[in-house]
Amino acid sequence: MGIELDFPAVLAQWPLLAKGVLWTLGLTALSAVIGLLLGTACAWARSSGPLALRWIAGTYVELIRNTPFIVQLFFVFFGLPAAGVKLTPEIASVIAMVINLGAYAAEIIRAGIEATPKGQLEAAASLALSRVQTFLHVVLPPALRKVWPALTSQIIIVMLGSAVCGQISTQELSYAANLIQSRNFRAFEAFIVATGIYLLLSIGVRALLNWVGPRYLFGGRR
Amino acid sequence: MVDFTLWDIVRNLLLAARWTVALSLIAFIGGGIVGMALLVARTARWPGAEAFVAGYVQLFQGTPLLMQLFLAYFGLALFGYETSAWTAASVALTLYTSAFLVEIWRGCVAAVPRGQWEAAQSLALNFGEQLRYVVLPQATRIAIAPTVGFLVQVIKGTALASVIGFVELTKAGTMITNATFAPFLVYSCVALMYFALCFPVSLYARTLERKLNANHR
Known about the structure:
The complex is a heterodimer of chains A (222) and B (217). With 222 residues, chain A is mostly helical. Chain A contains 9 helices and no strands. Chain B is an all-alpha fold and 217 residues long. Chain B has helices spanning 6-43, 49-61, 65-78, 85-110, 114-122, 127-157, 169-180, 183-216.
């Protein structure tokens, strides 16, 4: 018995795939930016915020880190409208991805913040920097530099996780693959191609973030 | 129409949660076995093993688990195997788990000082004995905490099996939602059940980590 694979049938639908790639990258970029901000805020809240805030941030982080992304997504997309918040699939996807990334990023960034040498804080205090200035200019940049590889990995995990967003009809890459296989019944080939593209995306995004981080985010100087 | 009480929802979800647990165990044990085989092949420096394992890890860590599940589901059928959601989910999750475990364990083996290998060699132990009696016992101690921590990832990963029609906690949640039209309540319950499964494991992993670090101090 021979197995016939028909890749041209899938590749002929490249505009769909290209659109899917753009959506995947767009969702990832948007949720990476907002998610890192949320994560930084939560990391600050957990390491030096007031007690109530510390508790809230802690609960949020533990709740998200111990439940699957697909359940978070379904909760946002199907659950919230029942509570009166209507969302499009795309917005629901971004919200779920931001919430998810925020929780993991909070833990990663907190580890970086807690590794700040005490002398740095004392030096900042002796320069009469305010608490906010100290956090933004003294604590955060080296902390980000230290944990940037871990953050990069986490952003890629979120990007790969976004394949699930196709399940609520967000038109990202896995949705495109599903659409193609429903048109030509070449399911295996469609998913092989999509998987290959995801692999390239994760390699490319890692390279990009490794390049962007030191240049624009926390300064290349040591 | 049948009315669902809260207890009906919770009871049905709990029944489905058994399959989440079962699938997690299959993936974890299967992944452990495959991961260990890969680790031994790599550590033994079989020709090509190092490159193969590196590619394997990159492939499974660099692509979505959802795609791996689809590929297992449609791929096994293509090669003429009778696929159920059970087989496809077990195969995909086992391979996925093994790729992460081999990477975690590789680090743990690398953390065992070189001198330990040399000492074992100078006692005329062969490779298998060196690994079995000298290196692995030490590597295991370091490996336990991250391995238990990864179990949480596996449990959460099984939720994706719902997409290929495997009726576990998430799929049951969707089915009950379709019957009750109470998505907020049902998905809250689903999330809480995952939390109840995962949080104790996370805490245990953290305790183990702390214990290990205490010994090192």
